[in-house]
Amino acid sequence: MTSQGQTQNTITNAQAREPRLLRSIRRTFSFVATALTSAALLACEVAHETVISTQGSPTSTAVPSDKATPQGGVDGGGGNGYNGRPLESYKINDMMALAEVKNSILPMLSNLKKSFLPLAADLTFILRERNWYMIPAALEQISATKIGVYFPTDQLAIQNFSDIWMNAKIYNGMETSDRSTILLHEMVMGVKLLQGAGALDRCLATATISSLDGTPQATYEGRRTSCYQDYSRAGLVFEPPDISLEKADYEHIRALTTKLESTHGTLDGAELKAWLKASNVRVYDAQ
Questions:
Q1: For 5-13, what is the mean pLDDT?
Q2: What is the pLDDT of residues 27-86, one digit of tens each?
Q3: Percentage of residues of the chain with pLDDT beyond 90
Q4: How far apart are CA 184 and CA 186, in angstroms?
Q5: Which residue has the higher pLDDT, 132 or 67?
Q6: Are 95 and 171 in contact (CB under 8 A)?
Q7: pLDDT of residue 29
Q8: Backbone dihedral region for residue 62 (phi beyond 0: left; psi -120 to 50: alpha; all else: beta)
Q9: Cβ contacts of 162 within 8 Å, gap of 6 or more
Q10: What share of the chain is helix, strand, coil (3-state, %, to 5)?
Q11: Would residue 184 be called left, alpha or beta, if left means φ above 0 and alpha means ψ between -120 and 50 degrees?
Q12: Phi and psi dihedrals of 136, rounded to 5?
């Protein structure tokens, strides 16, 4: 066979083999394409379950239906209650009308204002101005170590810078003398919190002096109004409080409660003022 014939045969054989090679390649690519298409379809199906399109958030992750949470109004406020009653219904409207206040707390304050008027005014302010609630519920427990004792305790009351919550289930079963003790304890705690309260709160507490020292009622009311006017202009009406209680603070609060109760408020004013400053319960440098 001539060289030309061999060349022609080689070309013919290559042409015969080429379709088989291309078919093999096409089959390979077809398999890969099919796999990729299936994966893409699967991804779309998965995405359909977990991604939703919402106005302003085109790629928000959806919450599975069995774990759905309500939308809107979560942090928008609203009424709260307990046992089917609004919390406001548990508020004590007139603390001064309680027998334990009339028979124990007020006589002690009457003596204390002669010994050290500023503290008597602060205690009176807490008694009058804080919102006192009697709610038939267990209160959030403060750890025994935090308050400086070494055994489990009953949480009889708990407070912040505006509200004092009492466990009515326990309180109502107490002897009258024990009721007056826990009320006085909360009043003393409130005085301690005044140390870190906003300037308006401290101004109103100081103005309370005018309601105890024989000053005309109109003068007292005028001083309260001045507190609101002055601190409103200064932007301090809702000044955030700043205080953190430690074990020693709880110990000092119990000590002062016991001292006031055992002496019925008859104390040496200078000594009491010095003790209050040393224990950092309340500093009265200006008085």
A1: 46
A2: 544 443 444 344 433 333 333 322 222 223 232 223 233 333 333 334 556 889 998 999
A3: 56
A4: 5
A5: 132
A6: no
A7: 43
A8: beta
A9: 130, 131
A10: 60, 10, 30
A11: alpha
A12: -80, 65
Q: Give DSSP secondary structure letters for 138-179.
A: PPPPPPHHHHT-SS-----EEE-SSEEEEEHHHHTTS-HHHH
Helix (H, G, I), strand (E, B) or coil at 135: strand
What pLDDT does residue 240 have? 58
Residue 216: what are its φ and ψ, rounded to 5°?
A: -55, 145
pLDDT of residue 145: 85
In whole numbers, what is the pLDDT of the chain averaged over residues? 78
Burial class (CB in 10 A: 0-12, 13-18, 19+), 71: exposed
Q: Give, in degrees to the nearest 5, the angle at Cα 188 between 186 and 190.
A: 70
The type of residue at 20 is R
Question: Would you say the pTM of this structure is higher than 0.85?
Answer: no
Alpha helices by DSSP H, 208-278: 217-233, 247-263, 269-278
Name the one residue in this structure whose structure tokens are 């400053």: 277
Q: How many CB atoms lie within 10 A of CB 199?
A: 14
Residue 249 sits at φ, ψ, to 5 deg, of -65, -45
Q: Considering only CA atoms, which of 247, 242, 249 is closest in space to residue 196?
A: 242
CB 244 within 8 A of CB 280: no
Which of helix, strand or coil describes residue 83? coil
- For helices 247-263 and 176-194, what crossing angle results, to 10°? 130
Higher pLDDT, 287 or 191: 191
Instruction: Let me know the angle formed at the C-alpha of 284 by 252 and 197, rounded to the nearest 5 degrees.
Output: 75
pLDDT class for 287, splitting at 50, 70, 90? low
> Reduced to 3 states, what is the DSSP secondary structure of residue 282?
coil
